[in-house]
Specification:
This protein is α+β, with helices and mostly antiparallel strands. The protein has 6 domains: 120 residues, Beta-Lactamase, CATH 3.30.450.20; 113 residues, Beta-Lactamase; 64 residues, Signal transduction histidine kinase, dimerisation/phosphotransfer (DHp) domain (Helix Hairpins); 159 residues, Heat Shock Protein 90; 118 residues, Response regulator (Rossmann fold, 3-Layer(aba) Sandwich); 110 residues, Up-down Bundle (Four Helix Bundle (Hemerythrin (Met), subunit A)), CATH 1.20.120. 51% of the residues lie in helices and 19% in strands. The strands form 6 sheets. The chain has a 5-stranded antiparallel sheet, with helices on both faces. Helix 10 crosses helix 17. The N and C termini lie far apart (145 Å). It catalyses: ATP + protein L-histidine = ADP + protein N-phospho-L-histidine.
Length: 768
C-alpha cells in the first residue's frame, strides 16, 4: 500500500488485516489495539490467528482458509459474515467481516465492531423465546385499554387467538358483565397512571374462556413505554378451588367442633350442678361436731366427690387441650401446702389398699412460687392416683426437690415411685397416649378411662416442663417430672399475707343470690350466713332485677342458666338499664359452665368475675373479699416488707390444727405429744433468737429458723409462714439485719399467742 493510503486507513475506526500471496500477514491496522487490546507488531502478525481464535481448531481453519486463497484454490464471497473474536483480556467482540482477494492472490479483510448490535439481537431473540415459552399470559394495552400485543400463552390458557382479542375485543369476550369490565378498567387506570388506589382488591378475577368455562386469573400490572400498560396473568384456578374446599372443610369441622363443645358444656353443667351440692354440703357437715366414724364417712364421701369431679375435669380438659383452649395461670401459691393437700386427698385411697403413701420434700424446695396450682394439683392427683390404683402392696413415694435456681426461675423435680404392677417394656412408649392402658384388661381390673396420663403429658408440656417414665413389669413404675416456676418474692409474700387474713375474715355483706336450684340456694345461703352475711334469694333473672330495684346489695352472685330470664340478660339490665348506683354493684357469675366462651359471654354481659361450681369455700371467700367490704380487718399496707396487723384488734385463732388432726387420725395421745413437743421447740427457738439477735449470729439464726419452719405449716400458723419465708431469704443472703431483727421480734409475738392457744387445746384434749 502507498504511504498516504496507509495513513488514511490508520485513522479509520475499522479493523484491516492483509496478507501476501504466501498467506503471511503483512498489515494489521492500528485500530486493532483500541478494539482488541493487542499491540500491533511483527509478533502479532505471526500469531494473529492463534491470538483471536477461541480454540485451536478455529485457528487452524482460519490459517487453512488463507492458504487456500493464496494458492488460488478458494474463491471469496463478497457477502459479509460475523465471527466472535477473542480480546487480549479474554473477553470477546463481535466483528462483521468483508473479504477481498486481489489479482496477485493477496488477501484483505475489513472488520467492523457489531458487538452492541449483536447483543441487542440476542436479547431480542431470548425475550421472544421467553415470551413464547412462559406460562403466564402477557398483554400490552394502550391508554384506551385496547390490546396491542398478547403472548402465545393467552391462546394456550383461554383458547382465544391474538387476532380475536386485539383491540377492545378482550373486554367483550372475557367479561360477560360489561359493568364489571368497566370497574376493572377504572381500577387499572387509577393504579397505573394516577397511583390513587391499590389494585389488590381486583387482582383476582374470573375470566371467561373460549369454550365457555371460567378460570381464576391473578393479575400483576406495570406501566409500559409510550403510555401503555402491561398485564401479566397467572392461572390460579386450582389454588382457588383448593382454598374453597379447605374453607368448606374448615367450616364443617368448626360446626362439628361447636356441636361437641355445646354437648360437653351441657354435660358439664348437668353433672356439676348436683355435684356442687354433694361436695358443698359435705364440707358444711365436716365443720359441725362429729364422731370420728361420722367424720371418716363424710371424708370418704367428699373424697369420692372430688374423684368424680376430677374425672369430669379430665374429659373436659382433654377436649380443651385438643382444641388448644387451656389457659395457664401464673399466680403465687404455696407449693408445699399444695403437695400436702394432694397427698392428704389420696391418703384415704392408700389406706384402703393398705399401702404406704409417703411425701418427701427436700428442704431446698422453694415453698412459695409463681405458677398454676390447679394444674400442678391435677397432674399430681393423676400420677399419684395411678400409682395407688396399680399398687396392691408396698408403697407409693412422692419425692420433690429443687434442681435449678437461677435469677428469675426455679426448676422443681417431682418423682412418683410405686411398687405396683409396672408396665411391660413394649408399652412404655405408649402410656401417654389417649385411651391407652398398659394391658387390654387393665380397665376391667383396675378401672379408669385411659385419659389421665395423656392429660398429664399435655399439661406438663403447657407448663414448659418434661415428664418421662421408667418401669419394669412386676416391679413398679417411676414417673419423673421437672416443672419450671417463676420467682417474684414480693408478689408471693403479699399474696400470702392477704390470703392468710381473708381465711380468717368475718364478712358483713348484704348479698343477693340469683339461683334457680334449691339445693344450691341452701348450700350458698348456709355458707354465706356462717360468714355473717345477709342473703336474699331470687329464683331467676327477673326476680333478681326486681329485688335489686328495691334493695341495695354489696354483691350479686348470679347463676347463668335459669328459667324465665338467664343470668346474662339479668346482668345487662342491672348494668345498663337501672340507676347508676345499682349498676356499680359487683356481679359474680356462679356457673357450672367452664369454657372460655362462657367466661367471655359472662364478662361481656357486664359481670365482674366468675367462679365455677363446685367451688371451694376459699375461692368464694377471696372473691367476696375482693369485691365486698370486710369488717374487723385492717387494710394491709402496700409495702415491700411484710407488716403484721395489730394483734390487739383481732380475736381470731393463730393456729389451724385440722391437718395435724387428720395426719394423727385424731388420736388424742398422739396430738397431745405433738403439741407438747412443738411448744418445747417454740420455747427453744425464742431463747436462741433472744440470745443470737444481740450478736448478729447469722448462721445460728438461720439454722434455728430452718428447723422450726416445717412445723409452722403443720400447725397451720398462716400468719407466720410468710414472715419465716422472708426471714429465711434475708438470713441466707446475710443482709438488712435491722429488718431481720424486726421480723424475728414479730415472730416472737406470734409465738406467744400460738403457745396460749396450744395450751388451751392441751387442756381440752387432756379432759377428753
Amino acid at each position: 500500500m502507498r504511504d498516504n493510503s496507509i495513513q488514511y486507513l490508520n485513522e479509520l475506526n475499522i479493523l484491516i488485516v492483509s496478507t501476501n500471496n504466501n498467506g503471511e500477514i503483512t498489515y494489521i491496522s492500528p485500530y486493532c489495539e483500541t478494539l482488541l487490546g493487542y499491540k500491533v507488531n511483527d509478533k502479532l502478525k505471526k500469531d494473529w490467528w492463534d491470538k483471536i481464535s477461541f480454540t485451536n481448531d478455529e485457528s487452524i481453519l482460519n490459517k487453512l482458509k488463507i492458504k487456500e486463497i493464496s494458492l488460488g484454490k478458494l474463491k471469496v464471497s463478497n457477502k459479509p459474515y460475523e465471527t466472535k473474536v477473542k480480546c487480549s483480556d479474554g473477553n470477546f467482540k463481535w466483528i462483521e467481516w468483508r473479504d477481498t482477494v486481489l489479482e496477485n492472490n493477496t488477501f484483505t479483510t475489513v472488520g467492523v465492531d457489531i458487538t452492541i448490535r449483536k447483543s441487542q439481537e440476542i436479547a431480542s431473540f431470548h425475550s421472544n423465546d421467553i415470551i413464547n415459552s412462559v406460562d403466564a399470559m402477557i398483554l400490552v394495552s394502550d391508554k384506551n385499554d385496547n390490546v396491542i400485543f398478547c403472548s402465545p400463552s393467552v391462546e394456550r390458557m383461554l383458547g382465544y387467538s391474538d387476532e380475536e382479542i386485539m383491540g377492545d375485543n378482550w373486554w367483550k369476550l372475557t367479561y360477560e358483565n360489561q359493568y364489571e369490565a368497566q370497574k376493572v378498567k377504572e381500577a387499572i387506570h387509577n393504579f397505573v397512571y394516577f397511583h390513587i388506589k391499590d389494585f389488590t382488591d381486583i387482582s383476582k378475577r374470573q375470566i371467561k374462556t373460549k369454550n365457555g368455562d371460567y378460570k381464576w386469573i391473578e393479575w400483576q400490572l406495570s406501566k409500559g413505554l409510550n403510555d401503555t400498560y402491561i398485564s401479566v396473568g397467572t392461572d390460579i384456578t386450582n389454588r382457588v378451588l383448593t382454598e374453597m374446599e379447605l374453607k368448606e372443610a374448615k367450616e364443617t369441622a368448626e360446626k362439628s367442633l361447636k356441636v361437641k363443645d355445646e354437648f360437653l358444656a351441657n354435660m358439664s353443667h348437668e353433672i356439676r350442678t348436683p355435684l356442687n351440692a354433694v361436695i358443698g354440703f359435705t364440707d358444711l357437715l365436716l365443720e359441725t361436731q362429729l364422731t370420728p366414724e361420722q367424720k371418716e364417712h363424710l371424708e370418704t364421701m367428699r373424697n369420692s366427690g372430688e374423684i368424680l369431679l376430677s374425672l369430669i375435669n379430665n374429659v373436659l380438659d382433654l377436649a380443651k387441650l385438643d382444641s388448644n383452649k387451656v389457659e395457664i395461670e401464673e399466680i403465687p401459691f404455696n407449693l408445699h401446702k399444695s403437695l400436702y393437700e394432694v397427698v392428704k386427698l389420696m391418703k384415704l385411697k392408700a389406706k384402703e389398699k393398705k399401702i404406704a403413701l409417703e411425701l418427701d420434700i427436700n428442704p431446698n424446695t422453694p415453698e412459695f412460687v409463681l405458677g398454676d396450682p390447679t394444674r400442678i394439683g391435677q397432674i399430681l392427683l393423676n400420677l399419684i392416683g395411678n400409682a395407688i390404683k396399680f399398687t396392691d402392696e408396698g408403697s407409693v413415694i412422692v419425692s420433690v426437690k429443687l434442681t435449678k435456681d437461677e435469677n428469675n426461675l426455679t426448676e422443681v423435680y417431682f418423682e412418683i415411685k410405686d411398687t405396683g404392677i409396672g408396665i411391660v417394656s413394649n408399652k412404655i412408649s405408649t402410656v401417654f397416649g389417649v385411651f391407652t392402658q398398659a394391658k387390654s384388661d387393665t380397665s376391667r381390673i383396675y378401672g379408669g378411662t385411659g385419659l389421665g396420663l395423656a392429660i398429664v403429658k399435655k399439661l406438663v408440656s403447657l407448663l414448659n416442663g418434661e415428664i418421662k417414665v421408667q418401669s419394669k413389669f412386676g416391679v413398679g413404675s417411676n414417673f419423673k417430672m421437672t416443672i419450671p416456676f417463676k420467682k417474684d418474692v414480693t408478689k408471693i409474700e403479699k399474696h400470702f399475707v392477704e390470703l392468710g387474713e381473708v381465711e380468717k375474715s368475718i364478712l358483713n355483706l348484704k348479698i343477693l343470690l340469683v339461683e334457680d336450684n334449691k339445693t344450691n340456694q341452701l348450700l350458698a345461703k348456709t355458707r354465706l350466713e356462717r360468714w355473717n352475711c345477709i342473703v336474699d334469694i331470687a329464683n331467676n333473672g327477673i326476680e333478681g332485677v326486681k329485688k335489686v330495684q328495691k334493695n341495695m346489695y354489696d354483691i350479686i352472685l348470679m347463676d347463668i342458666q335459669m328459667p324465665v330470664m338467664d343470668g346474662y340478660e339479668a346482668t345487662k339490665i342491672i348494668k345498663n338499664d337501672l340507676s347508676k348506683q345499682v349498676s356499680k354493684i359487683p356481679i359474680i357469675a356462679m356457673t357450672a359452665y367452664t369454657s372460655k366462651k362462657d367466661i367471655n359471654m359472662a364478662l361481656e354481659a357486664g359481670m365482674n368475675d366468675y367462679i365455677f361450681k363446685p367451688f371451694k369455700k376459699e375461692e368464694l371467700l377471696l372473691l367476696l373479699k375482693k369485691y365486698g367490704k370486710l369488717t374487723n380487718i385492717e387494710k394491709l399496707e402496700d409495702s415491700k416488707e411484710i407488716k403484721i396487723i395489730n394483734e390487739n384488734t383481732k380475736s381470731e385463732k393463730y393456729t389451724d390444727l385440722e391437718f395435724l388432726k387428720q395426719e394423727s387420725l385424731n388420736e388424742t395421745s398422739i396430738l397431745v405429744l405433738l403439741i407438747q413437743l412443738f411448744i418445747k421447740d417454740l420455747d427453744e427457738y425464742v431463747q436462741v433468737v433472744t440470745k443470737e439477735i444481740k450478736t448478729k449470729n447469722w448462721e445460728i439464726l438461720h439454722r434455728a429458723t430452718h428447723k422450726i419452719k416445717p412445723n409452722i405449716s403443720m400447725f397451720g400458723i398462716s400468719k407466720m409462714e410468710p414472715l419465716v419465708h422472708t426471714l429465711m431469704k434475708k438470713l441466707e443472703k446475710r443482709e438488712d439485719f435491722d429488718n431481720v431483727s424486726t421480723l424475728l421480734n414479730e415472730c416472737k409475738q406470734i409465738i406467744e399467742k400460738v403457745k396460749e392457744e396450744l395450751k388451751e387445746e392441751l387442756k381440752i384434749l387432756e379432759n377428753e
